Amino acid sequence: MDRVSNQVRKMIVSKQLKVSMTEVSRVTGVSTSQLRYWEKKGYIQSEQDDQNKNHYFSLPTIFQAFTIKLFLDQGYTLTMAVKKEQQRRELHRVFERFITDCILEIKQTGEKEGEIKLGPLADDPTKEVYATINRNNTSLHLRPLNNE
Domain named HTH merR-type: which ranges (predicted)? Predict the structure, then answer.
């Protein structure tokens, strides 16, 4: 993974990126009063400045608020919207784990084309799985493992 991608990933995971409540409201369409209520109920969390006046939200929390609102807009109750968001977040954690554990190398092979090396096959460690991405599709492949 290149250095820029690694730094961005660290910034997001470490929750260093913070956004004000007003900006979260503007971006997500969730009113500041709703955000305060959701925070009071424990559905989302913010950090406050030294004077406990301004609320700041991490990027993952912004996605939480946005997703809860999407479920509310689909007609779910707040309780069910929060539950569905928690389920979505758990699936995201599983996917994030896959990305972290399995993507060994990404390389560009052409304009808007690339290859992602996913590592050895569990049942046959002499072969590796890789994905090719081109303009038309993404596909998975097997090849002999090259132990350079």
Answer: 20-83
Question: Beta partners for 143?
Answer: 128
What is the C-alpha to C-alpha distance for residues 45 and 43, in angstroms, rounded to an integer? 7
Rounded to two decimals, what is the model's pTM? Answer: 0.68
Residue count of the chain = 148
> What are 26's two structure tokens?
């503007």
Query: Where do the H-state alpha helices sit in 74-148?
Result: 78-102
Over the stretch 94-129, which tens digit does the pLDDT of each residue have?
Answer: 998 888 888 888 999 999 999 999 999 999 999 999
Pick the CATH number of 3-102 from 3.40.1280.10, 2.40.420.20, 1.10.1660.10, 3.40.50.11540: 1.10.1660.10
